[in-house]
Specification:
Layout (H helix, E strand, L loop, with lengths): L1 H37 L17 H6 L3 E12 L5 E11 L7 E10 L4 E10 L12 E9 L9 E12 L1
Antiparallel strand pairs: 1-2, 2-5, 3-4, 3-6
């Protein structure tokens, strides 16, 4: 009778130890998944065969494009932080048809250092057909704030032209 209680107590201790170690393992795995999801790099989608800053065709044409900022809106995001959406319009004031445009939205701190960046592709993602001379296209860029950055630490969110494809 005494041996039964001892065996039961040993079995209970072993069961509790296994349950405790299993719970800790699940929590560790969940923490690793959350950290990896938070620091996951942005997909490196870029325009193929595009002219970038420094290329003669890009430098010659960039002044013929106008980016008109329409609005900047701050939204809470899914993980309890915030993001800034910049709504803008791209005007083609030049004489060439554009088949691709890559634009970067950058969140700047008070020292004008980049906190976060997000790419937008008004052409071909927002508008599938090329942007002809004299035409314009509306687009938006949503830039997520990094962890532990408050709205008061953000000076501005800007958009800049990154690549052109003719």
């Amino acid at each position: 009778m005494f041996e039964n209680k001892v065996e039961t107590t040993k079995e209970q201790k072993q069961s509790r130890a296994i349950l405790w170690f299993g719970s800790v393992a699940v929590l560790l795995i969940a923490a690793v998944v959350v950290l990896l999801a938070r620091y996951r790099p942005q997909p490196a989608f870029a325009l193929d065969n595009a002219e970038r800053p420094g290329a003669a065709a890009f430098e010659a044409y960039k002044d013929k494009l106008e980016i008109e900022i329409i609005d900047k809106i701050t939204h809470p995001n899914m993980v309890g932080m915030f993001q800034v959406e910049v709504k803008a319009r791209l005007h083609n004031r030049g004489d060439r048809t554009l088949t691709g445009v890559e634009i970067a939205g950058k969140m700047l701190d008070m020292d004008d250092k980049s906190l976060s960046e997000r790419l937008s592709f008004p052409i071909p993602r927002v508008r599938e057909e090329p942007l002809k001379p004299g035409e314009s296209v509306a687009f938006s860029v949503k830039v997520d704030a990094p962890a532990k950055v408050s709205e008061g630490e953000v000076k501005d969110v800007i958009v800049e032209l990154r690549a052109l494809r003719f």
